[in-house]
Specification:
The relative contact order is 0.12. By secondary structure, the protein is an alpha/beta fold. 37% of the residues lie in helices and 23% in strands. The protein folds into 2 domains: 197 residues, Spore Coat Polysaccharide Biosynthesis Protein SpsA, Chain A; 90 residues, no CATH class. The strands form 2 sheets. Strands 1, 2, 3, 4, 5, 6, 7, 8, 9 and 10 form a 10-stranded mixed sheet that branches. It comes from Glaciecola nitratireducens (strain JCM 12485 / KCTC 12276 / FR1064). Keywords: Glycosyltransferase, Transferase. It holds the Pfam family Glycos_transf_2.
């Protein structure tokens, strides 16, 4: 059996409906985990769909874990994770699962496979500047990390690696899990010939000739904090630590001076830096109750 879990947060109803309809035609069971304040009206009558609503927003890590655990209980062998703003082809699940099954038959140590991501803003394939290819098995390329949307996981190997780190809440969750899998001698891979259109960030901006992702102010809290939290962990790649810590001042300047909602962004970044230095985890609302009113 193949299952899927789609994570929602105040989604565009038309885009979400199309994605869910497409996924339902390709999997045996679908878990929809909704972190929106109000429940999303899906209007889809099928026993294949299991809906979970968390109005307080439990974070993407816990939402994914809810889906993964339920798919395990239901007897699924493989689980596909998707964000609400991804677009997949009608044969996406079949092609991705075929590669994962083949890797298992060939005794390749692969725990998860994802597609080549096409950025919906640039309509171009996303190519990491620093990440290097580790190993190539015909149509799959082993890398250090992949994003969670489009990631298909071999559930038989999940218990050893563990579930997603809920203390991170959102940013860095997918990469941390991939790096942790490496400590158990598992690898993650990209399907070289399978593509998926995905929205990365809310918008794009340019500073000093460099185009960068622009997200909501609250995301800056998790981005800044989680960089400092993950930098403490030995299994996190040195190149990732170095690159992200070095660009922190530039990101701080760009968000504090060049973007809208400057004061709000400034406050969230300061809170994130403080909590990162003091090793605080979980949600912003738990750590800064008075400031979240």
């Amino acid at each position: 059996m193949i299952g899927a879990a789609i994570i929602l947060y105040q989604p565009d109803s038309d885009i979400t409906y199309r994605l869910i309809e497409s996924v339902l035609q390709q999997v045996d069971v679908l878990c929809v985990i909704d972190n929106s304040p109000m429940p999303t009206s899906l209007k889809i009558a099928t026993k294949k769909l299991h809906y979970h609503h968390f109005p307080t927003n439990v974070g993407i890590a816990k939402a994914q874990n809810v889906g993964l655990k339920e798919l395990q209980v239901l007897g699924c062998e493989y689980a596909l994770l998707l964000d609400q703003d991804s677009q997949i082809d009608p044969d996406f699940v079949f092609r991705l699962s075929s590669l994962l099954v083949a890797s298992k038959i060939n005794e390749q140590p692969i725990i998860a496979i994802g597609p080549r991501v096409i950025c919906s803003f640039s309509e171009k394939a996303v190519k990491p500047r620093v990440q290097r290819e580790i190993l190539v098995y015909e149509d799959i390329v082993c890398v250090t990390q992949i994003i969670s949307s489009g990631m298909m996981i071999d559930l038989s190997k999940l218990d050893l690696v563990g579930f997603k780190d809920e203390t991170l809440f959102i940013d860095g969750v997918d990469h941390e899990w991939c790096w942790r899998a490496r400590t158990h001698d598992y690898m993650v891979a990209i399907a070289d010939k399978i593509e998926m259109v995905h929205r990365l960030g809310d918008a794009r901006s340019k500073f000093a000739g460099v185009t960068y992702k622009v997200g909501s102010p609250i995301r800056l809290y998790y981005q800044f904090r989680n960089i400092l939290l993950l930098a403490r962990r030995g299994y996190v790649p040195s190149y990732w630590k170095t690159r992200n810590i070095l660009v922190l001042p530039i990101r701080f300047f760009a968000n504090a001076l060049l973007q809208t909602q400057k004061r709000k962004r400034f406050r969230y970044m300061l809170c994130g830096l403080w909590d990162g230095l003091t090793n605080k985890r979980g949600s912003f609302s738990d750590n800064w109750k008075d400031n979240n009113k």
